[in-house]
Amino acid sequence: MTSNLLSIGKSGLLAAQVGLATTGHNITNANVDGYNRQVVLQQTSQANNAGYGFVGTGTEVSEVKRQYDSFMSTQVNSAQATTSSLDAYYTQISQIDNLMADTTAGLSPALQDFFKGVQDFSSNPSSVASRQALLSSANSLASRFQSLSGRLTEIGDGVNSQITSNVTVINSYAKQIAALNSSISQLTINASNQPNDLLDQRDQLVAELNKYVKTTSQPGSNNTITVSIGSGQPLVVGDRNFELAATPSLTDPSRVEVGYVTGSTVTVLPKNSLTGGSLGGLLDFRSETLDTVQNSLGKVAIALATTFNDQHKLGQDLNGAMGTDFFKVPDPVIGADIRNSSSSTTVLSAKVSDPTQLTASDYSLKYDGSNYVVTRQSDGARTIINPYPQTKPQTIDGVDFSISGTAAEGDNYVIKPTANGAAGLSVLTTDVNKLAAGAPITTGAPVSNTGNAKLGPGSVDSAYLNPGNALTSTVTLTYDKTSGSLSGFPAGQAVTVKGLDGASTTYPAGTANIPYKEGDSFNFGGINISMTGAPAQGDTFTIAPNAGGVGDNRNAAALAGLQTKNILDGGKATFQGSYAQTVSYVGNKTREVQVSGLASMALLQQNTSQQQSVSGVNLDEEAANLLRYQQAYQACGKVMQIASTLFDVVIGIAR
């Protein structure tokens, strides 16, 4: 009986000792990230049958269990991945927001200064000072485009560097998780005998991993876990870890993508397969905002350069020559997939032909085995190149695609029509005398005319630049009152007449008499003239080359008018308006990401608080446990003391 009592006291003493050790372990690890509170579970030892009943034999520790809730941990990890993604996104986009909204360093002031220079040039076309001022403002505008594009490129380079850094950290965590999987597997005896501290370390690594990329964890064999990312790519399986790689884009060596390593092969993961974490935020920022802003800025630059060039070439400079290209228009960027077949002979070129139809999207050209298919990457819209072989370039969204040769199925190309638009913009004209302010034609009427008809100053369009259309001699139009028509138009050119009601009629080349009604306008060989009033019989009107038109500002006025003309986005936005839309998009997106980030942070804090209420260490509770286990220890010690006393009594009787 005494021996049994001593054993009972001893079991309670040992159990209290485990409780004290576990409580002390909790207290000392209260501030360790990822530590889950541990509790001692006791059970009654098997009793002995004494005949008259079962006599207890004490207690035993059945398990030291950590207070862990897998559902809550998953919620915390998910919220952490979202928060980290939004934080990374906001850090990057706020740089662009500050850059574009800057009232001094943004594009808007440079655009305004440039067109102010054009207006001054229009007001004083013969002034060398105004011409030089225009060239200076044009160079400043080009520099501003280049500066903004350069800053965006720097941000892109920073994103590349951070992607590489994140991939390195992810691989490191995966390796550590795999090592812990191995240790945990070896130390796990059964479901109630597990290495709790190692489990905490592993779970904390998974939590840290979710700061960089969103993961999915599934239980594996022998207390291991399988960690996967993206669309199911395994990162850790048992004691084996797989790696990601920062690798150059298949179509753009300057762009870092994330690849999945399988043996010696690196497979580039789609940009939408990696979500969450700072890595996912960086990839989302680059595809959703950085590329869009870079392309939008390039779109404005190309549209400005193209339309300004087109109008400038319709004017006449101080030397009497037709204008030339004022700006250099950058060509689209074309990248061929490095996996394309070596037997391919495809030759692809692209050129912007209609800036009014440009988008801010990139395009892919892929051969599907039967056709070349152009896909707009912003929305997936597909266009088949038809016919092929081409008889002429096919225009898609204002870009002429010219393709020749043969391809193998799967051959792929990426076309970026506006990506280099801002960086490649420059001013070609350096001679002030070559600024084309005047129109190449002049109109007139002799004072001997008896009617009140007046001929407008006239203008030219792009058709005037076609061979054979430029005026080399005076064209004299004569009015015949009997037939109500004008004669004298060039015999080799068709004449289009447009009335005040908007209706137009085209008369074939060689038509001797062209009917006239008051207010009609005429177009022939790229020359546009309008007439008002009623001419008298025999009245004549002349259209002649503009010789010595030094003070003429008609083309300069047309150049200045481009500032307020709706050109971009299908003729719905001005240069300033299109840029303002981009600034607005960036501002709204920045605010959206900021608000979403704050909401995600609040959710993370809420989920963390709920998890800690279950798994966290409460020092007040642990202090109470210390007292409880201390009292239990002392009481069990008293039991053992009494057992010792009784044993001494028994020994004394024997003496």
Task: Quickly list its features.
10 helices; alpha+beta; single chain; elongated; 42% helix; 6-stranded antiparallel β-sheet; 655 residues
Please give a structural write-up.
With 655 residues, this protein is of the alpha+beta class. The protein folds into four domains: 2-67 and 619-654, no CATH class; 73-288 and 573-608, no CATH class; 331-419, no CATH class; 441-545, no CATH class. The chain is 42% helix and 21% strand. It has ten helices and 32 strands. The strands form nine sheets. Strands 23, 24, 27, 28, 30 and 31 form a six-stranded antiparallel beta sheet that branches. α1 (2-28) runs antiparallel to α10 and α4 runs antiparallel to α5. It is elongated and about 160 Å long. The mean pLDDT is 92.
Per-chain topology:
Blueprint (H helix, E strand, L loop, with lengths): L1 H27 L9 E7 L3 E2 L4 E2 L3 E8 L3 H32 L5 H17 L4 H60 L8 H14 L5 E5 L5 E5 L3 E5 L2 E2 L2 E5 L7 E7 L2 E4 L8 H36 L14 E2 L4 E4 L10 E6 L10 E5 L4 E5 L5 E3 L9 E3 L2 E6 L7 E5 L9 E2 L13 E4 L9 E2 L3 E2 L14 E6 L4 E3 L7 E4 L5 E4 L5 E3 L5 E4 L2 E6 L7 E6 L8 H8 L6 H4 L3 H41 L3 H36 L1
Antiparallel strand pairs: 1-4, 2-3, 5-6, 6-7, 7-8, 9-10, 10-11, 12-21, 13-20, 14-19, 15-16, 15-20, 16-17, 18-19, 22-32, 23-31, 24-31, 25-26, 25-32, 26-29, 27-28, 27-30, 30-31
Helix pairs in contact: 1-10, 2-4, 2-6, 2-9, 3-4, 3-7, 4-5, 4-6, 6-9
